[in-house]
Amino acid sequence: MFGHITLPDESLDEHVSVLGHITLSLTDIQVSGFSIGSGAFAVDAPNEVALGLGDINLSVSLNYKWRRVHWPHASDHGSVTASTSDSAMAVGVALTAASGKLTAAAAAHSADFNNFKIKFHGSHVAWLYNLLMDLFKGKLKSSLQDAVSKELEKMINTNLNAALAKLPTQSHIGGGKSESNINTGFAAATAGTSSYGQYFSLLNEFAVSNAATGAACPLQNPVLPGLTPKVDHNMIEFMMADSFPNCLMQTLYENKFLTMTLTNKDVPKGFPLQLNTTYWAQYLPQLAEKYPGQLMQLDVSSQFSPYLNTSQELGAVAHLGIRINSSVVQSDGSLVHTHVMGVFGTLGLDLTITDGNNHTNITIHPRISKFTVNVTIEQSSIGPIDDSKLEGLVAMIGPILQQFANQLLSNGIPLPFSPLMYLVNPTITYQQGYFTVATDFDSKLPRSFMEQMPAPAPMPAPVVEPSVIKFN
């Protein structure tokens, strides 16, 4: 936790048994070799985190010089090495959110160092320096505790705040027509207690806006609970409301990302769906009768913004609706409208988590495991169409749309975890209107990690309810 500490020089003017009145100077006091054996975490309302560290070991080296004040004068100098074990530190951190930024302030903090083992180096008489032992121990203890307490305060008020200041308040997902801007700024940090125990929450609306138009997502965010009910609670819970991915889909819908025109040249050779009336005769006989051997064009658009529903009963289910306007291509290149089909799909989603190479880029990957398609004729310019003829088309188009949707989702949804955090046995549970990633974690922090810490990835930030992201 601490790489190296240099303590200020000390001068003492003391009366020591046998020796009498002496002056003692301690210089070049160096503290190193910090190791922490145990830790405990607690929270305190309204916004404080307390961390207790135990079984602390460290080493101290210094130079000394003492002199007897009165005649007969005597003096000596040399060096000392010392170590302490079974010591403890405690620190409280109060977190506050304002203007999208999270700031930290040191609350109560303390250090208690005991069990000093001191060794003198240099020319001296052992019994004489036993007289100085308690003086050394007392001064080292008070100096060390004062210095470590100040270092803890500096790490929180200066170094931690410098790291928190690097957290971005704006991010984005996608590119081009699919790009969404996301407000990742912090709005609240809360310590709480539930029937499951204590927790500390960082909440964030993760407000989404359309990068192309600047329009805010019109969907309302729900209110997330303090902790996910009926879950075996892990060290961390990450709750995401349906409204967040739905707002990303809203951007696609508004920017007509899912609007496209398909002609026969767009269809790969050998693809099961061909855009000519001869192929479509098996589904729409009157189309081939009225326009034999002609090419076709399909204009595809979304009927509504795709959306996700989560629940304990059904898990994650997505819904989409597509309108297909069909035309035949005349010999002069002009188009003749033939009919309009409505395609409605219900998708069962499996969600998995990956953390990429070197435990970075933690991402949720949705994959469509079930796909139900319903095709109807909304309008026809070629006479009445028997919907039952479309059953074969449904059986064929379902797997195609499933593959297309899985490709669309293949990049996944990145989660804002610190790159220093390793997920351990993450699980996903579904609740009404949101899902929860529950996980334990591990971390390997470098020495003096506060100074060396890079700017973390956007962390789910606190937000006043209603909220869409909650990080416990």
Could you explain how this protein is built, in words?
- There is one protein chain.
- The protein is rod-shaped, with a radius of gyration of 34 Å.
- It contains six helices and 23 strands.
- The chain is of the alpha+beta class and 472 residues long.
- It is 18% helix and 48% strand.
- Mean pLDDT is 81; it is low at 444-467.
Provide key terms for this protein.
seven-stranded antiparallel beta sheet; 6 helices
Based on DSSP secondary structure assignment, what is the total number of beta strands?
23
Distance between the termini: 24 Å
Average pLDDT, to the nearest integer? 81
Amount of beta strand: over 45%
Alpha-beta content class: alpha+beta
Specify the biggest β-sheet. Answer: 7 strands, antiparallel
Kindly provide the radius of gyration, computed on alpha-carbon positions and rounded to a whole number of angstroms.
34 Å
Q: Strand-and-helix sequence, N→C?
A: EEEEEEEHEEEEEEHEHHEEEEEHEEEHE
Count of runs of 4 or more consecutive helical residues: 6
Classify the helix fraction into a percent range: 10-25%
Give a short summary of the structure.
By secondary structure, the protein is an alpha+beta fold.
Per-chain topology:
Elements: E1 5-7, E2 10-16, E3 20-44, E4 48-68, E5 75-98, E6 101-112, E7 117-121, H1 126-165, E8 170-173, E9 180-183, E10 188-194, E11 197-204, E12 207-210, E13 236-241, H2 243-254, E14 260-263, H3 277-280, H4 285-290, E15 296-302, E16 307-311, E17 315-329, E18 335-354, E19 363-380, H5 391-408, E20 413-414, E21 421-431, E22 434-443, H6 449-452, E23 469-471
Antiparallel strand pairs: 1-3, 2-3, 3-4, 4-5, 5-6, 5-7, 8-9, 9-12, 10-11, 11-23, 13-22, 13-23, 14-15, 15-17, 16-17, 17-18, 18-19, 19-20, 21-22
